[in-house]
Amino acid sequence: MVTKTLTHGMGTFFKECAHAKSRWPKCPHPYKIQFRDITERQRVESGFQTETAAVGRLLEVYNAKRAARGRGGRAERVAKYGAMRFGEYAAEWRGGQRHLEVGSLVRLDSLMKHHILPVLGSRRMDSFDHEVVDGFIRAMERAGAGLATQANAFDKLRAVLLYAHRLGLYDTSPLEGVKPPQYDPARAVIPSTAQLAGIRVAGDDMFRLVADLMSGSGLRNGEALAVNVRNIVADDVHRITEQVNHTTHAYARLKHRKVNEYRDVPLPARTRETVEWYADKYGTVDGCLLRHPNDPGRPLPYYYLGNQWAHIKKAGEAEIPDGMVLYGMRHFFASNCLSHNIPITDVAEWMGHRSIDITYKIYRHLMPGSINTAAKILNIDLAA
Question: How crowded is residue 246: how many other Cβ atoms within 10 Å of its Cβ?
């Protein structure tokens, strides 16, 4: 590893590759920087695409350290700023942003006023950690803030907290391990109860069965296509044992499961009634309900379901929210669970996610409440 050392105290920048320094400008590997922070702990940051960006970051850290040292030692700074409320600290930080253009300052003030201060304004500076920052992101998601707004508000919060970290207020950055806002609402467009009621009966009987299995029990498309009445192991429990593979159109093991593994899911009464109604009307083949219309020995292929969904959207007879895909009915199941306070651990298991992190990433904006909401609710009886 070859490094370049700058002015004493600034640190170094380097690339972890075999290319000579003369090749670095054309080398695709990112630059890394190494420096000592205000607490004299050695830090490494990466991801800089150009030498200018790497040196600029080192200069920023260097200037912040010099400015901090001019204002006294770390103990004094912690004593002064640790107990300060975020709103007061942010106002002081904002006074130093004179390099920003008028338009940028207006946007900064708007984000502070409408998104950041209502949630974090009264919080002590020394109470920030990654959980608090992550909670702020969830609060924006629940409030329905757009992805661009979430990203911009997070950037401003990050700037404030990074400055505080460089002053030595935190041993570990409160941003460490936090994933910036990246949730795409288009990935989980969820129909309302009324919209679902119209969608489920807008297609043929096969579509109605699949819609009820996805929205009522959280089945994936392929799992619904493989529904088998023999797997209703209790009046309110449906055992999922296989799915129709999207590529082969044959029965296959469940996603994230080994052969012969299964998962049990809730079977609401309405969903069970639809299964029984379909079985009575069309019969079964070895317990399987959905079969290829031209060959009962084969499963129903995916494209039948896709064609139905396309027909329903084109007909315009059902109200479908913008951006909703067929998978939105499975999203409805998760929304229905979480809005009724069913633990996300159970929801993750029923949906067959590989880990709860997947469930949390997709649906955390649906989880009820926040620490700020809780404080208001708890105060109702306390103030009575």
Answer: 14
**Nearest residue to 245 via CA among 226, 227, 217, 259:** 226
Which two three-digit tokens encode residue 13? 């920048």
CA distances from 78 to 125, 129, 164, 175, 339 (A): 9, 15, 10, 18, 41
CA distances from 86 to 92, 274, 330 (A): 10, 54, 40
Beta-bridge partner residues of 240: 263
Q: Would you state the structure tokens that stand for residue 177, as one six-digit string? A: 């391990």
Segment 267-307, tens digit of pLDDT: 999 999 999 999 999 999 999 999 988 888 889 888 888 89
Please count the other Cβ atoms lying within 10 Å of the Cβ belonging to residue 95. 8
Highest-scoring range by mean pLDDT, 40-49, 73-82, 228-237, 359-368: 228-237
Q: What is the length of the chain?
A: 384
Rounded to an integer, what distance in angstroms lies between the CA atom of residue 257 and that of residue 239? 14
d(CA 74, CA 92): 18
And the tokens for 123?
A: 């919080």
Q: What is the pLDDT of residues 145-204, one digit of tens each?
A: 777 788 889 999 999 999 898 888 888 899 988 888 865 544 578 999 999 999 999 999
Cα 134 off chain centre by? 10
Work out whether the CA dihedral 46, 49, 51, 55 comes out positive or negative: negative
pTM, 2 dp: 0.54
Closest CA to 278 of 329, 320, 225, 314: 225
β-partners of residue 34 are 12, 44
- What strands, in cross-sheet order, belong to the sheet with 232-234? 232-234, 237-240, 263-266
Check: CB of residue 306 under 8 Å from CB of residue 200.
no
